[in-house]
Design a protein that fits this description.
Two copies of one chain form a homodimer. The first copy, chain A, is of the alpha+beta class and 307 residues long. The first copy, chain A, is built from nine helices and 13 strands. Chain A has one domain: q2cbj1_9rhob like domain (Jelly Rolls), CATH 2.60.120. At the A-B interface, α8 of A face β6 and α8 of B.
């Protein structure tokens, strides 16, 4: 059934058939003792699949992160590297992948105890960065991103075997209700939606702009929203949302003048290392799905640590 | 300068030059005594250019309006008339123009004292319907509508001389923050943005789907939002928003499963009858910009009146 010979596929998807629900067999919270978050936080994450921390980073810290980003964005020597995704129209930088390797400051940020400890405690193990990027979503014509589960893609295209990963998105700009904030469907992380269709070759070249294969049917989304509703991740710059690798999420477009930028880190457990992609195609490039499984060492404060 | 020979043009636009601001010379609130709204309501409208009434219509009333809509939408004999705008993909009804003529119930709705009296008192005169429609904005792929002033179009393409008109949008479905609700820029109604570009022939055939000519520059929008912020018209089905003909407004797309439907009436003062379009082209069809200036007679309750 699956095309991955080396590993059992508990979450088959993109077998061309219709969408269908497969109940999650993996845990959501793997840790047993919590220091950087409360028991209640952990329970909330278990139940809802996300967790928002307001003001996790200070105004000063956000300013430093922004200045660093500007500096990198203006570095013409880097614009040709595949990690830099440019707008088709004006060649402005839209996303930078592997930001934790492109910048010492962002390398520190993903190791900062305020985020790394939460990831390690929820996943109950050491973790490494599966993917990192910053998004510079412009105002006026920010595009929508349709509903999807990240795990569906990481499993199918990257060979991530189990649901033992989570994302942390740190807001670098204010998230209003009207500038296309992240929307999640609470509770949707407990069901895996096996999607219809077949993964095209080099799918990532297109899917990072607009995903079609790997998105669920309308009926399934309706049922999930009827059950769990929709929560939008509003909040000031400096807030952070952690969300489970399998939670259904998306974002509307943004015609307002307010841009929406964030730093985005995917933490995967070192006990959940990538195997061959379950779709049977070659894996995506390393800057999108890392094969460097070295556990992250925490730093107390990313701004201090890099000096 | 203008192409309308019969009438002075106080708000020249689409002269191919850049956007520029022309201060509003017309009043916002024309009435002097208020019965269906408070003095504070009128002051709020004067200052901000909009007014929201929660629960203006009951659940039962909304249900009747919805049932009526379904009945009309399913009437195959009407689908070919120009008033019916269909989705390109599945030929579902997306908008119905002149709804107040297509349906006795909606004809009663726009005369219902709860809305008509507000319009008459704010505009300080008898009023007629310049345009009416219902929008059936679907969930999952509702398109965004970019920032614009309605008056800019009605002046340029319909020959509306002055700013003495307002719109009332009655929600037939719940407006959440995430299903593409109307967004307005408070205070923006006090400035007219003269837009760049030139009106193409039969512009309405395209502009009702996606407006490009008649939209302001980014710099002007940024300044307006810096000044006034953005307000989203959230609220339960049955709420209504009144907004000035010149307020800058738009809406984001909608990937959520929640559709967003509304009944939309444009009230124009009988003292502000249409003249020739200021863009110099023939006027738009009557079902988009009416030349029937007969004042509306109020009814106490639209559901009772039609029986």
């Amino acid at each position: 059934m699956t095309q991955n010979k080396s590993q059992m596929d508990f979450y088959p998807t993109r077998m061309r058939r219709n969408s269908k629900i497969i109940p999650r067999t993996d845990s959501v919270v793997y840790g047993e003792s919590f220091v950087s978050l409360s028991e209640d936080n952990a329970k909330f994450f278990e139940k809802n699949g996300y967790l928002i921390f307001e003001n996790l980073f200070s105004e000063n810290e956000i300013k430093s992160l922004f200045d660093e980003l500007k500096k990198i964005s203006l570095d013409e020597s880097k614009k040709d590297s595949p990690q830099f995704i440019l707008e088709e129209t004006d060649k402005e930088v839209r996303s930078i992948f592997e930001i934790h390797k492109q910048s010492k400051m962002y390398g520190g940020l993903c190791r900062d105890r305020r985020v790394l400890d939460v990831a390690r405690q929820l996943l109950g193990s050491q973790v490494y960065i599966h993917q990192s990027r910053v998004n510079l979503k412009p105002g006026f014509d920010g595009k929508e991103f349709y509903w999807h589960s990240d795990f569906e893609t990481w499993h199918s295209e990257d060979g991530m075997p189990s649901m033992r990963a989570l994302s942390c998105s740190i807001s670098l700009t204010d998230n209003f209700e009207f500038n296309g904030p992240l929307m999640v469907i609470p509770g949707s992380h407990k069901q895996f939606v096996s999607c219809s269709g077949k993964t095209p070759k080099k799918h990532y070249q297109q899917s990072l702009k607009r995903q079609e294969v790997g998105t669920p049917d309308k009926e399934i989304l309706e049922a999930m929203v009827r059950e769990g509703g929709i929560v939008t991740a509003k909040g000031k710059a400096g807030s952070a949302i952690f969300f489970d690798c399998n939670i259904m999420h998306g974002s509307n477009g943004n015609i307002t003048p307010y841009p929406r930028s964030n730093a985005f880190f995917v933490y995967n457990s070192v006990k959940n290392k990538l195997t061959d992609p379950f779709c049977g195609l070659p894996p995506r490039p390393d800057y999108i799905a890392s094969h460097d499984f070295t556990p992250l060492e925490p730093v107390k404060n990313f701004l201090v640590s890099q000096r």
